[in-house]
Amino acid sequence: MSPSDKTVESEYENVNEMVQPKVVFRNVSKTFKKKNEDLCVLQDVDLDVAPGEFVCLLGPSGCGKSTLLNIAGGFEQTDTGSITIDGQEITEPSDRRVFVFQEYGIFPWASVWDNVCLGLRKLPKEEQKRVAQETIDLVGLKGFEKAYPMELSGGMKQRVEVARALAVKPDVIFMDEPFGALDSLTRLTMRSELIRIWKQEKPTILFVTHDVDESIQLADRVVVLTERPGRIARVVDVDLPHPRDLASPEYARIKGELYELLGVRDWG
Amino acid sequence: MNIYPWIGLAVAVLTLWKCQVFTKVILPAAVGLVVICLWQLACDHFLSDTNPTPGQTLAAIFEIDDNGRLWSDAAASLFRVTWGFFLAALVGIPLGLWVGWTTRGFQALNPIIQALRPISPIAWIPFAILWFGIGDGAGIFLIFYASFFPITVGTMAAVRNISMVHQRSALNFGLTGFELFRRVVLPAALPQIITSMRIALGVAWLVIVAAEMVGMDSGLGYLINDARNMGRRYDLVAATMVIIGAIGIVLDLLIRKFEDFDEVRWGYVKR
Ligand SMILES: Nc1ncnc2c1ncn2[C@@H]1O[C@H](COP(=O)(O)OP(=O)(O)OP(=O)(O)O)[C@@H](O)[C@H]1O
Ligand SMILES: [Mg+2]
After folding, report:
1. What are residue A54's DSSP bridge partners?
2. Cα dist. A152→A143, A263, A266 in Å?
């Protein structure tokens, strides 16, 4: 750990001076103990995320993005430092903050309807019906309520998973490369759908990806992580209105910046 | 020689090659026919006259049917298998679910299960007879023993194989206790439980014949022994073997019906 790592802090301290941050990462470090060597995966990650903000975590494969998100979701513990949501330290998973998994996390043994109802068990029957139908309509799966996941395409499965998360009206949604397994065209549609839903519901979203374009198309801010051990290399603001013009000079400039941060020089 | 009929035949075969009726009925039936022909050939040219031909075997099946032993002995075997298997599922599935899910249960019971599992049910025949006498009790006990381990171990493995994302989904949405069991543990394990039941039933059907040959006085296994001892009626032996095979196929088809339910179909999709 070199002192120069700390200089990155100035990059994001101007953000959200007024609002209470929703999610706060403080000095988060994580080391996996292996038989003969320790694997340091995360080092001193510091980050504030505002309510309703869409933040992308961008980094090379294996740099600890999933690990960071898993800790935030309450599935794993930090070694040092802490992650708080609304000032509360995260110790275990909760349906106030929902995960959308890298591999399909919906239940293949349950219909679309039952999957979406998973988090609505405690609501009264009528209310449950209304919310489930609303959410299914929102993600564009009307007419597929009775279908089972294996009868759906990859994109539709991810819609079910997004619906299952949205149904509980969570404050924070963690998405770990949710569109990674989809073809590039479906991926584009899913991104614009996600933005549409996000604008409507305004949850805070932490979105992990290793796709530079994906991060610029989605995020308010892109947090670039270094190679393992993952540290924050820089936080890049994306000040482009949605729907974003992929041909604009600003888009190209951000893209260049991100590629440079990731250490890729001749990208086209 | 005219070549066109041959081209016609080739085209016909090629069209048939992918057709359902061909792949599911004609092709397997043709192979079966070839095997029966080989059997007949072997009887004609190589084997002594004591060996029954396919025709004699068929006649023997009618003979067993006529004297009523087909039904009474098949019923005796099926009765033992049904009860032994049913009791094994009744105990084995809940036990497997519990041992698979709880760490302490696994630590406590897995070693003893693994230790008893390799002992062949056949080896238990003397004790089965000592405890239950010659008859249904001993048969049911042996079938219970034979199907208990595939079911319990299969269920256990099924639960322990529940994928990390599904466990985490359950955690994320706050499922606990019975709800966790009903919505995740059981449905996630069900396809593999059904598979283990299928394996268990197959084993049970193998074991009951052996058990009846050694230590019982009714059932299809006993029928085989009886036929051999009473005047070396090898045609009756072969006939009984055919019947055993046929009933085995029917049992397997019956239990495979479980695989068609919407809740478990996902578990059998080819990946
Ligand atoms: N439970 C674990 N035990 C030991 N090592 C682990 C564990 N989980 C992750 N790791 C290691 O930590 C590192 C970071 O893993 P992580 O899954 O967070 O990467 P990632 O940034 O999400 O990569 P990708 O983009 O490929 O998904 C990897 O080198 C991985 O081998
Ligand atoms: Mg990952």
Report:
1. A205
2. 12, 38, 39
Q: Are residues A164 and A174 in the same domain?
A: no
User: Of B90, B57, B59, B89, nearest to B197 (Cα)?
Assistant: B89
Residue A189 shares a structural domain with residue A230: yes
Neighbours of ion ligand 2 (CB under 5 A): A 66
pLDDT, one tens digit per residue, over B120-172 is 999 999 999 999 988 889 999 999 999 999 999 999 999 999 999 999 999 99
CB neighbour list of residue B163: distance below 8 Å, 6 or more residues apart: A103, B188
Contact status of B169 with chain A (Cβ, < 8 Å): yes
> Is residue A221 in contact with ligand 1, taking CB distance under 6 Å?
no
Q: Which amino acid is at A237?
A: D
Residues A52, A9 contacting (CB under 8 angstroms): no
User: How much is the ipTM here?
Assistant: 0.83
Entry pTM: 0.82
Domain boundary among A169, A197, A221: A169
Based on the structure, what is the number of domains in chain A?
2
Q: Cα torsion at B18, B22, B28, B30 (round to 10°)? A: -120
Structural domain that includes position A136: 106-169
A208 and A263 fall within a common domain: yes
Rounded to whole angstroms, what are the CA distances from A165 to A195, A223, B1, B172?
A: 15, 23, 73, 10
Please tell me whether residue A91 adopts helix, strand or coil conformation. coil
- What lies within 8 Å, CB to CB, of B47 at 6+ separation is none
Which among A101, A104, A118 has CB closest to B173? A118
Q: For the segment B2-26, what is each residue's pLDDT rounded down to a tens digit? A: 888 888 888 887 777 777 777 788 8
